[in-house]
Amino acid sequence: MQTRKLSGCTPIPLSGYLKALGVLRVISEQLDQAVRGWWEADVFHLSTDLTPEQLCTFLLSDYAPTPLVAPWNGGSGFFPKDNRTALDAICASEADRFREYRELVAICQTVLTNMSLVEKPDGDAKPLLLQNCRNVFPDNALQWLDAAFVLTDDGPKYPPLLGTGGNDGRLEFTNNYMQRLTEVFDVQTGQPSAKSHSLLMDSLFAACGETRGKASIGQFDPGSAGGANSSGGYDADPTMNVWDFILMLEGAIAFAGASVRKLEHAAPGSLAYPFCVRPAGVGYGSAAMTDEESSRSEMWMPLWSQPATFSTITHLLSEGRVDVGRRRARHGVDFARAIASVGVDRGIDSFQRFGFQQRNGLSYFAVPLGRFDASTPTTNASMISQVDRWLDRFRRAATGQHAPARASSALRRLETAIMQGCQRDDKASALQMLVALGEAGMAVANSPKLRDADYPVPPVPLLSPDWLAHCYDKSSVHAREFRLAAALVSMGFASGLKVDNQLRLDPVGPFRRHVEPIDHEKLRGKYRRAAWVEQTNDPSIVWNSFNLIGNLNRVLNRRIIDVIRLSESTVYAPFDGRCTAWLSDLAEFIEGRTDDAMIDRYARCLMLIDWPKLKHTDIPWKRDPVHLKPPAAYALLKLCLVPRPVPSGDHEIDIKLDPQIARRAAAGNLHTATTLASRRLVASGLNPAIRHVADGQTSTNRRIAAALVFPISSKSLLSLTKQVMRREADDAFDVQYREKISP
């Protein structure tokens, strides 16, 4: 067995892919069943003992074309107004290679006569004709019928590969197929024409030569379709190699559809076609949501690198399953997720994605939409599967007739991020998916139409804490913003503080309640879940813009109001969290050297994490490597707004919460706020070295107040205490307290 490289058979365009299958099918069925084919470096290869010349000799001299007929189509050659030249020539032929063709044409004419059809059938006559054809056609012609149409309880369905039953607009495939046969063969004798050999060499081996003639290949090769701006002039005619058309249709027969009843659908029946899904207008350069409305569907053509027989490929195409979780892939995004999670049969290295989209007016073209690797599963695909059911519901709502524009845009960004994440298994792609998921969740939260619809979209379900480590990249330019956002949104989920041997939890609730109308009580406890609250005018929802500093100051005031209203005993500031901010990050934030927009974006997505499940050892960042401290004004204010007692000597002191301190700081009145803070500390038994801080720029003052919201660790609290307090040297206290707070 020798390796033969078919340079003319490539995965793009679709005609080249189908041509490769056609060559493998014809040789396997008519010459050598042991022949094997595979893809290597975007070229189809054959393993056979035939030389290139012997291969051409077989196709020119012994190849018997598969009889393809479509008596249900206008222009098929069976009706008076059709072009019957090629059909009549085949019927009058005496060549043995056309014997089966002549027999099948005779059967078609008998069926039409029995049904008294003298013109193209319409209405109920067409399904009846299709059924009669299936009843009387010989076994060797049934494969063509399965590829052209499928009979279901809802009537005939037409797989996208062959248009509408072997017809695409004005291009009738079977009649053109017969015309192409008359160009490469002398139909009467069955001998090849003078130019047939050079045409075949160019089609199979990409031999140089002027072998393309003026003819339309239809949707299978958009680059050869002609039209405006398709050549050096203003317009151009369609061109093709006639052997391309013949072998392309021979390969299309390898795809056979079937009507199946899917358990997850209530519909009576639906079309199941090999590696065919609904279109998704994302994942390629010219992507647009309008493509979903005008496209027929998508097909993902498998590429394999191991030699395989045609029977193996046929089994793959007919039985290949593409699953997402426990259900079949429905659209292009599902297909990408299935590939990335190894949801297809083994042995496939990659898929070439094609979309049957309207281009060049109303014509449909098989547009290549990208190559997707299927050899290695990605973690991103398994991560996004946590919200599989929510994604399905959100997509249904966002593509509805009256869906808000914001939801449609969020859906497109989310699905684009998923497609990219399924191709690249890196932290940047994972973070992009998470950010897009947060934006989609906000689109639902801000749309009463989606929350209160007949089929409402619930909140984004709680995500695994694994997202934190999966998305955090310490080398990223926005790693600092990521850490700050994580500390911020983990508020309300701290392990609590023991007072009088009783575990005291934050009564205010999680950060997420300040952003969307979520039922925060259901986010706490053993059986946590996300659900909308019936009362949408909750005053706790204060995160209403992309002004981060304003939002943080509103959260500061709101949480203090709520904790005073809800607490029944000793009141602590409700700013404890599962994650804590580094003092160096807070110093950079106060100086304005952070990207506020990125903190806002990260906060909107990281709040979706199920923070009570996060363990301290799972936090991907540990100690602050930079010994940069925030200004003294922050330290003075923060000591009055902490969720735990402040260390003093060999004991700890409770600082009574004073809402005026936070209120003055949020208003930008730093002098008054620090004066009140100093008095509060003195009244609590502490001796601050600073009595007040003069007002600076209002923007800086408000950033200091905003920084008070971020939770900090016990070690950071000790550092702030030593920064602003006067106390006698007591090394024993320092050692004792450090041992107490060390994990």
Record field, number of beta strands: 21
Can you tell me the residue ranges where pLDDT is under 50 for at least 5 consecutive residues?
261-269, 495-503, 729-743
Strand content: 5-15%
Residue share in helix: 40-55%
Total helices: the number is 28
Mean pLDDT across residues: 87
Question: How far from one another are the termini?
Answer: 68 Å
- How does the helix and strand content classify structurally? alpha+beta
Give a quick account of the main beta sheet: strands, pairing sense, barrel closure. Answer: 4 strands, antiparallel
How would you sum up this structure, described in words?
Helix content is 41%, strand content 11%. The protein has 743 residues and is an alpha+beta fold. β14 (323-324) and β15 form a beta hairpin. The two termini are 68 Å apart. The model is unreliable at 261-269, 495-503 and 729-743 (pLDDT under 50). α16 crosses α22 (596-606). 46% of the residues are buried. The protein has a four-stranded antiparallel β-sheet.
Features:
743 residues; alpha+beta; 3-stranded antiparallel sheet; 28 helices; 21 strands
List the helices and strands and how they pair.
Layout: E1 2-6, H1 14-30, E2 36-40, E3 43-48, H2 52-61, H3 85-91, H4 99-114, H5 125-136, H6 139-148, E4 150-152, E5 155-157, E6 167-168, E7 171-172, H7 173-184, H8 196-205, E8 213-214, E9 239-240, H9 242-252, E10 258-260, E11 270-272, E12 276-277, H10 290-294, E13 298-303, H11 310-319, E14 323-324, E15 327-328, H12 332-340, E16 350-359, E17 363-373, H13 379-384, H14 388-398, H15 405-423, H16 427-445, H17 448-451, H18 466-471, H19 479-489, E18 497-499, E19 502-504, H20 548-566, H21 583-590, H22 596-606, H23 632-638, E20 646-648, E21 651-653, H24 659-666, H25 670-683, H26 698-707, H27 714-724, H28 731-741
Antiparallel strand pairs: 1-3, 2-3, 4-5, 6-7, 8-9, 10-11, 12-13, 13-16, 14-15, 16-17, 18-19, 20-21
